[in-house]
């Protein structure tokens, strides 16, 4: 069913009742699996993903050869850890039950995108001759999938204690009218759901922490250059909001762990236990 | 073990999020369960100018602009609500009486709920679009309140609650909230929030809740012009209220199949889907073309037609083979058969009246007698309607159904409205103002056609004026053909150049307007058009080159310079699609300033143009072609006649005249080549109405003369169109906008070929356009030069109509233009009056690198939508033009009687159709007009001969020349002044 964008101008409300600059509800948990080195679960609206990080560990025999997503850093064994990203999309995750194989081009592309972003921003040189494996599972899809995967990965990496330069947070940004409408005054949109993604031009952007440094920028739809800037600004702003939300979750978990005595309290800790 | 379970209430957002869950089935029959988030908010404003609280937190868009508040602080009051009121209609109220809400006398300050808007969209897209139009108009003060997104007004569907009940409850909840919310404003006079509904249950519940609620009829009757407005409430609803329908009535028509049964049936090939067309001569016969059969399926009789109206998309089921028939040869007109029906009581003696039955019975007998097995056509019955194509119809009240005598008081009368379009059945109308409406042109809407109603029921939209007044008739035919005739809105006029009529081609060549433009002001260019033409699209020039070849240029008005893509003017033009030419009026596609001045290639002034320049050798073969934007200065604007005189005048030896002679010489060669390739020269009767200049009353009718110069211009326009088509297709293989003319299916010509063979022993070969053109050339009658034209006219009617399309939608062989025998074709030469040409201009400009491609001219989906629209508009414009001519021919003949030669074009068993070449009109002559009582007759379908017996014995054959007496007559059925013909001698 085509999305009717004509009602937006009537009350500045999107199809699900949000304003143009609203994120969807974010729910995230960190350290969800005790057995894993790092794990997280993240929901952005109805997009639900989980992430498990294994490593840094000694590379397994088979892994280097398969090289899914590991290609970029495989040569750098001596200099630092290689990163392997696996994305599994569950058959029940979308409206139509559909099995997506390992060789699906779209999934491969997402794996490579995440792998490259991580390789550039993790301090992999600290772990020579080892592999960091990031396994992502998509349980439910409702738009902004790549962004959700990146955010979940960030949380799981923090849980695993792998040093990185800053949070890598991502979200999508779009525009309220389609490409063909050619409407340059269209409002930009933040955090699109599936319905919006199907009709409107959008991009996925990931930035590094509070800075404006863009770590990932993917745009597969056709859009006028004049609208791009507005979309990017909104997207980067969304990433900042996202960072605050993720940071809150990490801090909350940290203070809980200290309270429960799972971690020794030390003077070095910057976490204030009061909040 | 870590638990993933989310603690209750931890998320402060959670209470504001709800889920919309529903099940839908896709086109392929799959069932999907869809879950969508709904974010409930508290910052959706009430939009009342009384409310300060909402104003402070009004939402803002990305550039920090808030929407202005809509609802008036001091809304109008009525008797029941003297404090003023805001209206909240529910879906039924809008479905039944959208016309009311469009009134300018009342219905201001209306709150449209999102629930209602969405429900309306699902029920009727046209009404939805009208409502959205209303919400955009500033003076009507309609506000869309998104109640489903506001926390306080959102409600969950309860167990065992139907969707309708839930929506009604949502409406009441919103009304309640509005009331409470406005009470908080502490204004002196707090307006009442009134729910308008026609659902009695809903009204009762609202009253129980202590809300203001009213039915439409109750509300309207309190307004000042209540009586007039009451007529605009749809029929079906007032029935439900008044309850005058007898419950015991048995349905007259068979029930429609369920949509799932139709869908599976169509998929399995058991049922067929197509567009229902009614025969123009027989209202009880319809046909539907379906892919499964080469010939259209016939649908005979009221019961089989089963409430479909011309243009509806219907599903039909084939009848058994023993019920197959050949198409009717009898004229059956609704008015003569159902003349005495009473609209009021709808007495139901017999559903299929005896007369109708008799008419059909005779048909069956005839076919069985003739029983030429091969002539039989499959018949079918309608089992369901997929999509109604009801629009607003123009007509007049059948005076015989109106009650006689002065109407006392405001009694509700039932009358029949007879539509102008003969294919549309009578519409039953209930009105309180019969006496005022009699003799007026009326615009009505069809509301419904229930199983137990013989005729569709409708309601009045408005009156256009007295019958036969020029204003009313012109407006009527514009409405009938859906021509957009309203003045251009301000947003469109704002797109015009600010200089207005003082706009000039910039003098300095440094001006951006000159960028990439060639200076062709030195060329001796002239334009040749019909006399009095103001919107000059094209101009020409030719000159001899030093190498002995000729340079020929076609210069087309550069409209795309003034009309930029996707602005308001462009959107308006794409909706209008074409300029419509009526006899006394022109409905422009573009504002006058552009069409008749700035774009028009007027003589003696400099104008921007888009130029095609060929170098051709003396055989008119192209050596090379180029396209460029240019600046030209036309030397003279000729009429066809003036140009012809100048060319023929030997004493004129100036360069301009020489150039015109070259053009004429080359155009003849081009024409010859085209004809050799198999181009058809077809005919349609073309006539011109002469008007008295003062009163613009028509005084005479003449057939149009064709001069050499007509074909000169035509040839070069075709030539330019073909060249441009090839160029834009090369540049945009997927999205070029082209025009094609499909080869007609052979069966289309079967009847004509058979007629020619039997009556004249002539053979019509239709295997290719060349063969057809050649065999048409042979169809001559020494005694009768018009015979050839007649055959051509009839052949033209067997053709498909040409259409615009987007090149990606067809394969290359399908691009062919059958009539012009050209492999590829487009329209490029009339951008002032056709939108397709404007698109072609933009694409050509992009193809030659003049400007960047605008997304709107390369988005295929959008282009397809535009093509679809302009195809319809183009056709409607033609029809409106013809209808206008027909009206004026009638007016010109007013009070005159003429005896004219005529030719028999079509024969029925009880009448025949003749064409009068002098007026270019067709007329039906019925046997019952020959003598009273109707003479006995015998019709031989094999030889196309109709013989009557008795004292008025005549024998009429197809193609025969007859003499008819032509006089004007007011058609009682359509209320149109038309031409009536009587047979003088056969």
At a glance:
Chain A is an alpha+beta fold. Chain A has helices at 8-11, 61-66, 71-74, 105-121, 145-160, 194-199, 225-260, and strands at 26-30, 38-44, 47-57, 82-89, 131-140, 168-175, 188-190, 202-208, 214-218. In chain B, helix 2 crosses helix 4, helix 15 (470-480) runs antiparallel to helix 27 (860-892) and helix 21 (655-676) crosses helix 22.
Average pLDDT rating of chain A: 84
What is the subunit organization of this protein? heterodimer
Major sheet size, sense and barrel closure of chain A: 5 strands, mixed
Low-confidence stretches of chain A: 65-76
- Our estimate of the beta-strand percent of chain A is 15-25%
Q: How would you name the CATH homologous superfamily of chain A?
A: GHMP Kinase, N-terminal domain
Largest pleated sheet of chain B:
6 strands, mixed
Tell me the span between the first and last alpha carbons of chain B: 105 Å
How are the strands ordered across the major sheet of chain A? 1-2-3-5-4
Content-based structural category of chain A: alpha+beta
Q: Architecture of chain A, according to CATH?
A: 2-Layer Sandwich
Count of helical stretches of chain A: 7
Unreliably modeled segments of chain B: 237-248, 345-350, 368-373
CATH class of chain A: Alpha Beta
How many whole angstroms does the radius of gyration of chain B measure?
32 Å
| C-alpha geometry of chain B | globular
Q: Structural class from helices and strands of chain B?
A: alpha+beta
Average pLDDT figure of chain B: 82
Number of individual domains of chain A? 1
The CATH topology of chain A is Ribosomal Protein S5, domain 2
Give the CA-CA distance, first to last residue of chain A. 46 Å
Protein name (chain A): Exoribonuclease phosphorolytic domain-containing protein
Organism (chain A): Trichoderma semiorbis
Pfam families (chain A): RNase_PH
GO molecular function (chain A): RNA binding
């Amino acid at each position: 069913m085509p999305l009717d964008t004509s009602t937006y101008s009537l009350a500045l409300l999107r199809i699900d009742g949000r304003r143009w600059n609203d994120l969807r509800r974010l729910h995230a948990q960190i350290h969800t699996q005790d057995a894993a080195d790092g794990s997280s679960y993240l929901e952005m609206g109805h997009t639900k993903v989980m992430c498990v990080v294994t490593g840094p560990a000694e590379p397994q025999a088979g892994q280097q050869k398969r090289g899914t997503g590991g290609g970029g850093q495989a040569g750098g064994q001596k200099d630092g850890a290689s990163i392997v990203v696996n994305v599994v999309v569950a058959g029940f995750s979308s409206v139509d039950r559909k099995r997506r194989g390992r060789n699906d081009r779209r999934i491969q592309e997402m794996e490579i995108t995440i792998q490259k972003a991580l390789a550039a921003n993790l301090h992999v040189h600290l772990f020579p001759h080892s592999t960091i494996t990031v396994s992502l599972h998509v349980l439910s899809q409702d738009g902004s999938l790549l962004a959700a995967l990146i955010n979940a990965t960030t949380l799981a990496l923090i849980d695993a204690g792998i040093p990185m330069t800053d949070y890598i947070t991502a979200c999508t940004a779009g525009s309220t009218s389609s490409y063909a409408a050619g409407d340059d005054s269209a409002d930009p949109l933040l955090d699109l759901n599936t319905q919006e993604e199907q009709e409107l031009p959008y991009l996925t952007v990931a930035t590094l922490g509070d800075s404006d440094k863009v770590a990932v920028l993917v745009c597969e739809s056709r859009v006028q250059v004049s609208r791009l800037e507005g979309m990017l600004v909104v997207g980067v702003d969304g990433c900042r909001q996202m960072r605050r939300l993720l940071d809150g979750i990490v801090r909350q978990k940290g203070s809980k762990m200290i309270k429960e005595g799972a971690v020794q309290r030390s003077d070095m800790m910057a976490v204030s236990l009061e909040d | 073990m870590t638990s993933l379970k989310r603690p209750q209430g931890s998320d402060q957002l959670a209470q504001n999020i709800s889920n919309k869950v529903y099940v839908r089935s896709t086109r392929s029959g799959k069932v999907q369960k869809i879950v969508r988030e709904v974010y409930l908010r508290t910052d959706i404003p009430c939009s009342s100018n009384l409310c300060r609280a909402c104003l402070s937190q009004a939402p803002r868009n990305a550039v920090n602009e808030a929407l202005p508040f809509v609802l008036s602080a001091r809304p109008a009051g009525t008797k029941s609500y003297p404090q003023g009121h805001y209206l909240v209609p529910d879906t039924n109220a809008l479905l039944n009486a959208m016309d009311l809400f469009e009134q300018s006398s009342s219905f201001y300050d209306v709150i449209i709920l999102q629930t209602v808007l969405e429900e309306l969209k699902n029920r009727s897209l046209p009404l939805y679009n009208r409502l959205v139009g209303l919400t955009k108009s500033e003076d009507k003060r309609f506000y869309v309140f998104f109640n489903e997104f506001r926390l306080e007004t959102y409600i969950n569907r309860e167990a065992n609650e139907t969707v309708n009940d839930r929506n009604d409850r949502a409406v009441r909840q919103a009304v309640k909230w509005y009331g409470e919310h406005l009470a908080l404003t502490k204004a002196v006079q707090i307006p009442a929030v009134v729910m308008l509904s026609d659902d009695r249950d809903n009204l009762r519940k609202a009253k129980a809740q202590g809300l203001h609620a009213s039915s439409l009829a109750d509300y309207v009757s309190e307004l000042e012009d209540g009586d007039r407005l009451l007529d605009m409430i749809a029929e079906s609803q007032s029935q439900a209220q008044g309850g005058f329908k007898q419950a015991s009535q048995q349905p007259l028509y068979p029930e429609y199949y369920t949509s799932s049964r139709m869908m599976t049936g169509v998929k399995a090939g058991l049922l067929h889907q197509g567009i229902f067309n009614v025969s123009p001569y027989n209202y009880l016969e319809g046909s539907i073309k379906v892919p499964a059969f080469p010939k259209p399926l016939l649908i005979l009789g009221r019961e089989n037609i089963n409430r479909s109206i011309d243009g509806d998309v219907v599903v039909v089921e084939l009848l058994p083979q023993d019920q197959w028939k050949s198409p009717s040869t009898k004229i059956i007109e609704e008015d003569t058969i159902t003349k005495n029906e009473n609209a009021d009581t709808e007495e139901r003696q017999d559903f299929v009246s005896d007369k109708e039955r008799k008419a059909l019975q005779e048909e069956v007998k005839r076919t069985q007698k003739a029983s030429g097995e091969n002539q039989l056509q499959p018949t079918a019955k309608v089992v369901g309607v997929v999509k109604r194509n009801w629009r607003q119809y123009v007509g007049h009240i059948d005076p015989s159904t109106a009650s006689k005598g002065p109407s006392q008081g405001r009694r509700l009368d039932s009358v029949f409205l007879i539509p102008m379009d003969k294919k549309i059945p009578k519409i039953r109308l209930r009105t309180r103002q019969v006496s005022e409406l009699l003799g007026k042109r009326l615009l009505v809407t069809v509301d419904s056609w229930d199983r137990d109603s013989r005729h569709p029921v409708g309601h009045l939209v408005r009156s256009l004026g007295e019958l036969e007044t020029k204003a009313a008739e012109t407006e009527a035919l514009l409405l009938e053909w859906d021509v957009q005739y309203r003045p251009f809105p301000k947003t469109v006029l704002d797109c015009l150049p600010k200089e207005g009529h003082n706009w000039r081609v910039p003098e300095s060549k440094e001006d951006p307007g000159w960028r990439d433009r060639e200076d062709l002001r030195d060329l001796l260019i002239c334009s040749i058009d019909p006399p009095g033409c103001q919107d000059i699209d094209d101009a020409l020039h030719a000159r001899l080159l030093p190498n002995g070849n000729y340079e020929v240029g076609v210069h087309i008005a550069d409209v795309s310079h003034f009309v930029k893509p996707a602005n308001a003017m462009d959107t308006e033009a794409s909706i209008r699609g074409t300029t419509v030419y009526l006899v006394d009026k022109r409905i422009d596609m573009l504002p006058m300033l552009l069409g008749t001045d700035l774009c028009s290639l007027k003589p003696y002034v400099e104008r921007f143009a888009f130029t095609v320049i060929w170098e051709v050798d003396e055989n008119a073969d192209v050596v090379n072609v180029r396209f460029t934007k240019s600046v030209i200065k036309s030397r003279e604007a000729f009429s066809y006649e003036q140009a012809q005189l100048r060319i023929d005048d030997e004493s004129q030896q100036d360069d301009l005249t020489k150039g015109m002679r070259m053009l004429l010489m080359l155009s003849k060669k081009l024409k010859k080549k085209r004809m050799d390739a198999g181009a058809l020269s077809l005919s349609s009767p073309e006539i011109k109405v002469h008007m008295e200049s003062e009163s613009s009353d028509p005084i005479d009718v003449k057939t149009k003369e064709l001069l050499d110069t007509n074909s000169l211009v035509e040839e070069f326009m075709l030539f330019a169109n073909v060249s441009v088509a090839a160029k834009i297709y090369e540049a945009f293989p997927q999205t070029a906008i082209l025009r094609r003319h499909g080869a007609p299916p052979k069966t289309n010509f079967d009847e004509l070929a058979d007629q020619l063979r039997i009556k004249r022993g002539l053979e019509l070969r239709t295997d290719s356009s060349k063969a057809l053109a050649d065999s048409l050339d042979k169809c001559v009658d020494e005694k009768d030069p018009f015979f050839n034209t007649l055959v051509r006219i009839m052949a033209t009617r067997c053709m498909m109509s040409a259409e615009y399309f987007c090149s990606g939608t067809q394969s290359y062989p399908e691009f062919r233009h059958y009539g012009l025998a050209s492999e590829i074709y487009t329209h490029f030469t009339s951008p002032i009056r056709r939108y397709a040409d404007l698109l072609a201009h933009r694409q050509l400009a992009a193809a030659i690198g003049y400007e960047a491609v605008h997304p709107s001219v390369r988005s295929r989906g959008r282009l397809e939508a535009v093509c679809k629209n302009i195809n319809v508009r183009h056709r409607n414009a033609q029809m409106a033009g013809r209808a206008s001519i027909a009206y004026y021919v009638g007016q010109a003949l007013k009070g005159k009687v003429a005896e004219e030669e005529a030719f028999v074009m079509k024969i029925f068993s009880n009448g025949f159709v003749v064409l009068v070449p002098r007026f270019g009109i067709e007329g039906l002559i019925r046997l019952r007009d020959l003598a009273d009582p109707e003479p006995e007759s015998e019709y031989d379908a094999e030889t196309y001969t109709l013989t009557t017996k008795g004292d008025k014995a005549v024998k009429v054959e197809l193609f025969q020349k007859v003499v008819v007496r032509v006089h004007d007559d007011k058609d009682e059925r359509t209320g149109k002044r038309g031409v009536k013909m009587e047979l003088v001698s056969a």
